Amino acid sequence: MEYGHANLASGLKEWQSSGILRQGCSDPLAKIKSCYDLSLTSNPSQQLDPGFPSSPRQRIEFRTNSQKAGSTASYTWKQTLQPTSTSTHFFHLMQVFDEPDGTPVMTLDAVNGNARIVDYSPQRQNCGGGCPTIPISQYTGITTLHSLRVTFGANGSAVYTVSNAVTGKQLLSYKPKGYMGGSSSYVKFGVYRSTYPGQSDVSSSVGDFALQ
User: Fold this and answer.
1) pTM, 2 dp
2) Dist CA 163 CA 170 (whole Å)
3) For the segment 57-109, what is each residue's pLDDT rounded down to a tens digit?
4) Other C-beta atoms within 10 Å of 210: how many?
5) How far apart are CA 113 and CA 196, in angstroms?
6) Are 207 and 31 in contact (CB under 8 A)?
7) How far, CA to CA in Å, does 51 sit from each of 48, 58, 59, 126?
8) Helix, strand, coil abundance in the chain, percent, nearest 5
9) Helix and strand element counts for the chain (H, E)
10) Partner of 139 for a Cys bridge, out of 60, 83, 103, 115, CB 3.0 to 4.6 A?
11) What is the pLDDT of residue 189?
């Protein structure tokens, strides 16, 4: 597992990688100026995060600076994800993360053939009646623009949209209210999955991060 801090956009604390992370994008489909290539192997026993020996997982993520409860921050970034396998296991593309608890509050996942919002707050089970979901085929092979505005803390809120960065077409939208982390929280994006037999490799590009 490797970590790095140099030459990151303002508002980012670090990158975290158990796979292959390269600055600059080789994918011609990635419409991203300040770009990174992310690659994870199809071998479920390799490129593992050593912090979870009983629950094998692979990770390449960028992490924002921590925000205190009550503060508000707005983030944008882009991602291109090439077609890849999914399963019932988690495959996080974005996380709002509760720092003291060490658990996600809400995520965007590639799971069961879909790109889907997952909300972990007990007060918002199943996103209050059905989590926003699209077929993963509508997410992969294009550059997606992510816009996330969060008021962190127990009485927080979020406005999260995912759209096609080229056409502007909105793909997903979610606006939860209530619990959005503990005394401090942060946002992560990239590719982070629980491994499983028969998985494919992962090829993704991310970048153009901005903190408003």
Assistant:
1) 0.96
2) 4
3) 999 999 999 999 999 999 999 999 999 999 999 999 999 999 999 999 999 99
4) 14
5) 15
6) no
7) 9, 11, 11, 29
8) 5, 55, 40
9) 0, 17
10) 115
11) 99
